[in-house]
Write a structure and sequence with these properties.
The protein is an alpha+beta fold and about 170 residues long. The chain contains six helices and four strands. The chain has a single domain, classed as 2-Layer Sandwich (Alpha-Beta Plaits).
């Protein structure tokens, strides 16, 4: 069909995949990073008010925020949704310089504190800007997770930056 339309053969696997050239970002001075915070549904309005106050005096290039609903999930030791939550995914543009990275880390820790004050948490796999104390407050079962990791991998065969930074 596509061959008859525009002379280009498209495989069945690629028919619904759109071009993604617009997502390529090749700036050598800065980059886009994600941070995600989770707050209980009932805390959303006061959290937004506090987040606005937290960020009002900061120099942060916040590109956009996407909000989504996340259902409670207590099955995982490192669950970010201890109750029904709203998730705020922040797209932030930050520089590569040492000063820019330090500023971004400081602001992310402030935003994390804001989420924690509202019984919230944050998404672990992004930048490791949060302190050990913040991680443990957001993830109260983290010690159980690290104990299990040690039990099943006592020689630390499987290692990553998260484990190195936050292990007990």
């Amino acid at each position: 069909y596509f061959l008859s339309q525009n002379g280009v053969k498209v495989s069945r696997n690629n028919v619904m995949r759109s071009e993604s050239k617009f997502l390529e970002y090749e700036n050598t001075d800065n980059t886009d990073v994600l941070q995600e915070y989770f707050v209980p549904v009932g805390e959303f309005a006061p959290y937004i008010h506090d987040l606005r106050k937290t960020l009002s005096h900061e120099d942060l290039n916040l590109v956009n925020i996407t909000i989504r609903y996340v259902q409670k999930n207590e099955k995982a030791d490192l669950s970010y949704a201890k109750e029904d939550m709203f998730s705020l995914v922040l797209l932030i543009n930050e520089g590569f310089s040492t000063d820019s990275q330090a500023s971004a880390a400081r602001i992310v820790r402030k935003m994390t504190d804001t989420a924690l004050r509202h019984r919230g948490s944050y998404y672990l796999p992004y930048m490791l800007y949060q302190t050990k104390e913040q991680m443990r407050e957001a993830y109260p079962k983290s010690d159980m997770f690290f104990q299990k990791k040690h039990k099943y991998d006592p020689d630390d065969l499987f290692m990553n930056y998260f484990y190195q930074r936050y292990k007990s």
